[in-house]
Amino acid sequence: MGIFPKGITDFSIDPETNRFQVNLTQPCNSDSEIQFHYDFNITGILSSRKIANLSGMSQQELFLWFPVITIRVDDPDSGLINFDVGVVDKQFSLSLFETPLDCTAIDPNDSFSNYQEPFKFRSTETVEENKLRAIS
Q1: What string of DSSP letters covers 48-98?
Q2: Which of 44, 52, 53, 104 has an alpha carbon 20 to 30 Å from 19's alpha carbon atom?
């Protein structure tokens, strides 16, 4: 499965909590039809057909980057994978993730990079308010 990019230098998992950490050589953006950004470190909790509490991964929608919170496969026979980016669930074909993604290293300090920090909700807003704000 190629949810994470090529260039992983280390992977660890706590067998009691299923919390994992993936380390990359440097932050990068995927070179695929779906734009992902990966930080140096990606963490989350593995369970059956789901990665929850994900951090260190963002997905670009139009010109904004949104943090990927959860990745799940609801029905393996459907051939679909869902990415929860907070304001919406994005659904993609599992076939796009058959192999690890190619990834181009980026310098987060480079003003010419197309990566920007992920869009984050203000703590006083509700999800519904954020969905409305994202649509408008």
Answers
A1: TTEEEEEEEEEEEETTEEEE--EEE-S-GGGTEEEEE-SS-EEEEEGGGGS
A2: 104
- Strands (DSSP E) contained in 5-62 are 8-13, 19-24, 28-30, 36-47, 50-61
CA distance 2 to 102: 10
- Distances in Å between the Cα of 7 and the Cα atoms of 51, 92, 128 are 20, 23, 37
DSSP state of 1: -
Structural domain boundaries in the chain: 8-135
34-58 tens-digit pLDDT = 899 999 999 999 999 999 999 999 9
Residues 52 and 72: their CA atoms lie apart, in Å, by 8
Helix (H, G, I), strand (E, B) or coil at 99: coil
The model carries a pTM of: 0.78
Dmax of the chain from CA atoms?
Answer: 43
91's CB contacts (< 8 A; 6+ apart) are 80, 81, 82, 83
Round to whole Å and give the CA distance between 84 and 16: 25
Written as six digits, the tokens of 50 are 């789901």
Yes or no: is domain 8-135 CATH 2.60.40? Answer: no
